[in-house]
Amino acid sequence: MHPLLRRLTRLRKFLLFDKLARDIEASLRLQILILLLFSLIILKFSISFYSVKIDDFVVFYDQKLRGFLFSGFLTVGSFLLSLKTFVVVNLKDKLFDSDAYLERYMNRHGFSSREEVPNNEYYRPLSNLTGFLFLSILFSIFTAVAQFSIGLIPNICLVVFCIWLALFTVMLLINSLRLIRRNLMVWLGYE
In the chain, what are the domain boundaries? Predict the structure, then answer.
């Protein structure tokens, strides 16, 4: 195996991409794919309306956007990193470990006792939320770093990539909020 491929494989294992890909449910993979496609469509739509010279856009990005994108995504990534454990632990303790949720889950899936309920399926919504929050944090920090690494190069392709990365990360964050809201609605008894 080529040394570069070996390093990339080690990096992928270090960042837990393989485990994360196995843990994320197929519907969440579909959500990620939809977010990816939607962000590309929005980017293409936005670029089609942009009529200024390419060099002017690169200068605009350099002077007006890059710094704000860096500080914004660094702040969001740091905040989510501290919030993730709090949200996941509270949802587990107060929702998934409650008798009311267990009874509701057993009735919905036709189980007669707690011993019959497989833990990996019972905690699947929490696992999905954890995976999506991890992706949101990872992409928030990666987007912030990209603004002051890749974004420093005055190349239109790299500038568009940095803007697309920010757009995709925002969509991941919005979907994470949607998943949190859905779990909270279950917890509060509205679903």
Answer: 64-191
